[in-house]
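Appendix B. Extra example for self-study. Work through it before the problem class; the solution is given directly after the inputs so you can check yourself.
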Amino acid sequence: MAKSLLIISRQSPWSGPGAREALDIVLAGGAFDLPIGLLFLDDGVLQLAAGQNAKALQQKDLSANLQALPMFGVEELFYCADSASVRGLGDRSLNEAQPLAAEQITALIDRYDQVITL
Amino acid sequence: MAAVLLIESVMKFAIALFSAAHAPSSRRALLFAQAALAGGHEIVRLFFYQDGVYNASDAVVTPQDELDLPRQWRSFIAEQNLDGVVCIAAALRRGVLNAEEAGRYQRDAVAVSAPWELSGLGQLHDAVQDADRLICFGGA
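Solution. Structure tokens for the complete assembly:
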């Protein structure tokens, strides 16, 4: 059986290539049909904020890539509820991702065979 | 019985490095890799991603009285005959090209050569599947 991998994405969307490069690992894993999960933590939750204007920063929009995740077979999408609320993103469901409390995050990390934090 | 225990204790490691050559975490990654082999363990692959691709750059010049980490990686990988893979997308973005990519994009700057290999993220996933443990250095 394939080993499962959790990517923890902690970078804000426009602070450098970190967010995109974390997402690229997820997309590659999905393309290989591997059991893969993605958790947005700390500034990483900002990737899920609505109404981002990537063009104003002369950047390519990440949100289209995020929305494509289920098409790549990546359905395990989570975000840290605390990280979202302290950044004013509320606790509603963001971009198909599911909010998790701190103790649920501990359980989530336990569930995966391997973890990469970027 | 002792022999069986010894065999079972041998680990297959995949090592991923995300930080530039001058970062302390890159130094720790090399020390860990050396210690893993010295302890009789196996390294299935070293994968260099994000700023970790700079560890493979031959264009890094370190002052004489400082540790030259890219050179140390190079000789470690060559001497131990390891699989040192640099993510091609991350390397292109950071100007760490091998001859083939420099030719493809018509650039004069060649910064990587054997024993390093430029390849895709599939090599990271492949290593994760193959290894008992994935050890990451220099992530966020």
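Self-check: Chain B touches chain A at residues 16, 18, 49-50, 89-90, 93, 120-122, 124-125, 128-129, 133-134, 136, 139-140 (CB under 8 Å). If your reasoning did not lead you there, revisit section 3.
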